[in-house]
C-alpha cells in the first residue's frame, strides 16, 4: 500500500521512479528470503544461533568440545564393558577418531551415555548410532526414521564427522551449551538444560576418574 503511494508521488521524475521500483524489488526479495528461512524445517546458521539463544545460552560460556583427549582408549573400553555395551572393545577407535577430528573423546562417550546408555537401550541397540541420528542421505533409514550404521565404529565416525563439519565447521557452535539446543531442541520434547548438565557431569566424572588412575 505505501509502496504504491510512493510510486505515484515520484511519477513526475523518472530517476525517482526507477529508484523506488528498485527499492521495492529489493525489499520484496528480502521479504521472500526471510519468509523461506522462517518457514524452513531445516536448521541454518541463523536458526541454530536462535535456538541456542532461546535456550538461555546467549553467552558463549562453557568449554569447547575441541581439544586433545582427556580420557584414554583403555578407560573408554572399561566404561563400555562395565555398562554391558554392545560397543565394548571400540575404545581404541573412539579415541583415535577423537584425535583425528580434534574433539575430546570424553564428549563422544558422554553423548553416547546420555542418548542410549552406551548403546544398551532404545533405537541404538539396532542402529549402532552413538548419537541417535535421524535419517541421513548416505545410510539406510529404519521405520522409526533413524539412520542405521554398518558397525559401531561407523556410527562413532559419523558422529564425530557431524559435530566437526556441521556444528563446529559451519555453524560455529563448539560448546555443550551451544550445541545441545540445536542437537536436541526443546521443540522435540527434550529437556535442554538437563541434557547439558548430564553431558558436563559425565565429562567431569570421566576426567576425575582418569586423574585417579594416573
* Broad shape: globular
Strand content: under 5%
The helix count comes to 10
**Distance between termini?**
73 Å
- How many domains make up the coordinates? 2
Query: What is the total tally of β strands?
Result: 0
CATH topology assignment of the largest domain: Lysozyme
Using only CA atoms, what is the Rg?
Answer: 23 Å
Name the structural class. Answer: mainly alpha
Could you explain the architecture of this structure?
- By secondary structure, the chain is mostly helical.
- It has helices spanning 2-9, 14-39, 45-54, 73-82, 91-101, 105-116, 124-127, 152-170, 176-183, 192-213.
- The longest helix has 26 residues, at 14-39.
- The model is unreliable at 1-60 (pLDDT under 50).
Helix-strand blueprint:
Blueprint lengths: L1 H8 L4 H26 L5 H10 L18 H10 L8 H11 L3 H12 L7 H4 L24 H19 L5 H8 L8 H22 L1
From the structure above, extract its key features.
about 210 residues; mainly alpha; 2 domains; single chain; Lysozyme
Amino acid at each position: 500500500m505505501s509502496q504504491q503511494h510512493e510510486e505515484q508521488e515520484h511519477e513526475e521524475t523518472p530517476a525517482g521512479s526507477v529508484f523506488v521500483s528498485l527499492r521495492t524489488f529489493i525489499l520484496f526479495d528480502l521479504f521472500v528470503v526471510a519468509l523461506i528461512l522462517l518457514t524452513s524445517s531445516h536448521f541454518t546458521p541463523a536458526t541454530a544461533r536462535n535456538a541456542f539463544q532461546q535456550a538461555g545460552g546467549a553467552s558463549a560460556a562453557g568449554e569447547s568440545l575441541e581439544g586433545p583427549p582427556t580420557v584414554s582408549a583403555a578407560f573408554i573400553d572399561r566404561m563400555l564393558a562395565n555398562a554391558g555395551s554392545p560397543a565394548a572393545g571400540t575404545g581404541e577407535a573412539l579415541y583415535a577418531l577423537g584425535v583425528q577430528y580434534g574433539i575430546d573423546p570424553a564428549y563422544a562417550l558422554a553423548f553416547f551415555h546420555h542418548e542410549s546408555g552406551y548403546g544398551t537401550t532404545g533405537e541404538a541397540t539396532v542402529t549402532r548410532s552413538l548419537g541417535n541420528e535421524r535419517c541421513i542421505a548416505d545410510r539406510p533409514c529404519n521405520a522409526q526414521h533413524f539412520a542405521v550404521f554398518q558397525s559401531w565404529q561407523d556410527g562413532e565416525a559419523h558422529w564425530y564427522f557431524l559435530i566437526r563439519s556441521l556444528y563446529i565447521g559451519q555453524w560455529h557452535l563448539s560448546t555443550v551449551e551451544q550445541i545441545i539446543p540445536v542437537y536436541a531442541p526443546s521443540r522435540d520434547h527434550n529437556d535442554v538444560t538437563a541434557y547439558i548438565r548430564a553431558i558436563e557431569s559425565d565429562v567431569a566424572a570421566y576426567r576425575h576418574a582418569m586423574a585417579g588412575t594416573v
